[in-house]
Amino acid sequence: MTRFAVLLLIALAATPVAAQDAEAAQTESEEADSIIRDGTDATLDEFLWVARPVIVFADSPADPNFVQQMEELRARESALAERDVVVLTDTDPSADSELRRELRPRGFMLVVIGKDGTLIARKPLPWSEREISRAIDKEPLRQQEVRERGLAD
């Protein structure tokens, strides 16, 4: 009986750790699947012909415009992923990132860049996923992608 009690205690003690490990692994997997990433070390060149960067700048992660924009983007990730969008965030002006040097934001700013590196939109206020998608869908390269993928109505 003593050996059984010891094994039972070990099993009970290990269960929360295993559950925490599984939860951490799931969180890491979800983060890897997310189209949203930190943009302080990113360059526009790494996305050329691969993805459409949507860059969200703010002077602080607590900026109400930044919070509103990120809520909108997180809620509609799948629609943006269909358009090969990657969302880059930069909320640290003191980091002097390459994106900040190139795009020169003042406070909150949303920038949409095409796969070919062209500037699609630059906005001083949050945009809905629908507005971002419409701006992307007007681009000739996106229209070509839609035709090639057979997604046209």
Annotation keywords:
153 residues, five-stranded mixed β-sheet, 6 helices, alpha/beta, 5 strands, 2 domains, Glutaredoxin
Q: Beta-strand percentage?
A: 15-25%
Count of runs of 4 or more consecutive helical residues: 6
| Tally of discrete structural domains | 2
- CATH architecture designation of the largest domain: 3-Layer(aba) Sandwich
Strand order of the largest sheet: 1-3-2-4-5
Largest sheet: 5 strands, mixed
CATH topology of the largest domain, anyone? Glutaredoxin
As a percent range, the share of helical residues equals 40-55%
General shape: globular
| CATH level 1 class label of the largest domain | Alpha Beta
Helix- and strand-based class? alpha/beta
Instruction: Report how far apart the termini are.
Output: 70 Å
What's the alpha carbon Rg, rounded to whole Å? 21 Å
Q: What is the residue-averaged pLDDT?
A: 85
Describe this structure in words.
The chain has helices at residues 2-33, 64-75, 77-81, 98-103, 129-137, 140-149; strands spanning 36-38, 52-57, 85-90, 109-113, 119-123. It contains six helices and five strands. It has two domains: 1-33; 35-149, 3-Layer(aba) Sandwich (Glutaredoxin), CATH 3.40.30. The longest helix is centred in the first third of the chain and has 32 residues, at 2-33. The termini are far apart. It is globular, with a radius of gyration of 21 Å. By secondary structure, it is of the alpha/beta class.
